[in-house]
Specification:
Acyl_CoA_acyltransferase, 300 residues, Aminopeptidase, 11 helices, PF09924 family protein, 27% strand, UCP018688, five-stranded antiparallel beta sheet, LPG_synthase_C
């Protein structure tokens, strides 16, 4: 029963086959997200009786995301989850995070007095109309378009977009991350983020479905980002870094990357804001069409 394994590349195909069965919009239902941040959330996976269980552990204790079965069996999977928490984690209480609304409603209706259920605003993902980001059209994105146009005007003939695929280019990106962090307080978040990016780049030959793009100015990489498909019509942008001293560079990498690499997707998930005020302000400024709500479910 406790035959769970650290999430690594050996589980990629299996996990993707389960995620393809559901229409959850949250970034946690993506192999890349769970793989990137495995070292911070200590995420593990187990396949049992045609069901995939994903667990994590942090300072708050053990938790699970929603189990995914090849056939929808929420009641049975919840009973199995109860056994796993008791036997494997020595816990009498089930804890679930990143729970989609439809599953939270199921729990509320079927087990009205067994669980505490609440929304976790800091973990809501930001969903955008992809065409709006590719064109920066409309009044609400007028300021972004002005910044983008100023960038193009100032650096015309000096900037170049490239898809990053080589070790030298990845080293350029890691160097940019170090430069980006120079004037910031080095905390766990920055270190963890760098480890996650290094992990992706180190094994990039096994992540060819992940697109990495960057903007060079006068031959020097000044912005990069990477993303992969979350659903057939939705791309998930996992990370974006740019030299903050170059006006309009963030709107430029955002727009150009989508235009070059994801010309036909309908939606862009740019993940959550971690409860950080500046990050929340930045994500809201791009006028999301939806905040993907996530719930926490804790057994009483």
């Amino acid at each position: 029963m406790c035959d769970y394994q650290i999430i690594d590349l050996s589980q990629k195909d299996m996990m993707k086959s389960y995620f393809d069965l559901v229409d959850y919009k949250a970034c946690e239902y993506s192999f890349m997200t769970l793989y990137m941040w495995q070292h911070i959330y200590n995420t593990h996976v187990m396949e049992k009786d045609d069901t995939m269980y994903v667990f994590g552990h942090d300072e708050k204790g053990y938790f699970s995301i929603v189990p995914i079965s090849k056939k929808k069996r929420w009641e049975r999977d919840l009973q199995e989850l109860e056994k796993i928490f008791a036997k494997c984690f020595n816990s009498s209480k089930i804890v679930m995070r990143a729970v989609p609304e439809e599953y939270a409603k199921f729990i509320e209706e079927e087990y009205p007095s067994r669980f505490n259920i609440y929304k976790e605003r800091d973990s809501f993902d930001y969903m955008y109309d992809a065409e709006k980001l590719r064109t920066l059209s409309g009044r609400k994105l007028h300021a972004k378009k002005n910044h983008f146009n100023s960038f193009i005007k100032e650096f015309e003939g000096r900037y170049e977009y490239k898809r990053l695929t080589t070790r030298d280019q990845f080293n350029d990106a890691l160097d940019l991350m170090k430069r980006w962090a120079e004037n910031k307080t080095i905390d766990d978040t920055i270190v963890i983020e760098q480890e996650a990016v290094e992990k992706i780049f180190k094994h990039y030959e096994k992540h060819k479905d992940t697109k990495v793009g960057g903007i060079y100015i006068d031959g020097k990489l000044e912005a990069f980002t990477f993303a992969d498909m979350l659903k057939d019509d939705t791309v998930c942008v996992h990370l974006e870094k740019a030299n903050p001293e170059i006006k309009g560079l963030y709107p430029a990498i955002n727009k150009i990357f989508l235009c070059e690499e994801f010309k036909d997707v309908k939606f862009v998930n740019r993940e959550d804001d971690l409860g950080l005020e500046n990050l929340r302000k930045a994500k809201l400024s791009y006028n999301p069409v939806e905040l993907v709500e996530k719930y926490v479910i804790i057994e009483k």
